[in-house]
């Protein structure tokens, strides 16, 4: 059975690349979510005025990749203690977030975040937001599968 979730962990180019390598991920699409405007452009999102996060819409086969394991991968590929940034990328669009489609995903994401906070992995509290998924707006075509199209040149996780 396939499920979908939206994950935000900084620059969506690198996040998508890492998630695509994860066995059980069926498809990915980068875009924008959790904002206040309809159909924003990348340029508009970068201003911060739209309040959107850069997200990866992940379709995964839960028989191969249980949601909890996908969340484990999510925590591995970014620093969830940084507010509105990842590495050199700064702005509200680079926040950490899990945007769920089902109550089961909400419960598992909440428990997973608590586990991360209880672990000794992080030196600061985990700030990842966990919210119901709002409308997903795909990013422009040149952003989709960016590293595959451009030889891995660009932001790195």
Architecture overview:
By secondary structure, this protein is an alpha+beta fold. The protein has one domain: Peptide methionine sulphoxide reductase MsrA (Peptide Methionine Sulfoxide Reductase, Chain A). It is built from five helices and eight strands; from the N terminus they run βαβαβαβββαββα. It has helices at residues 12-20, 42-46, 67-76, 103-118, 146-150; strands at residues 2-9, 25-33, 53-61, 85-86, 89-90, 96-100, 129-132, 137-138. The protein has a six-stranded mixed β-sheet, covered by helices on one side. It has a two-stranded antiparallel sheet with strand order 4-5. α4 (103-118) links the parallel β6 (96-100) and β7. α3 packs across α4. The radius of gyration is 14 Å and the shape is globular. The N and C termini lie far apart (29 Å). The relative contact order is 0.26.
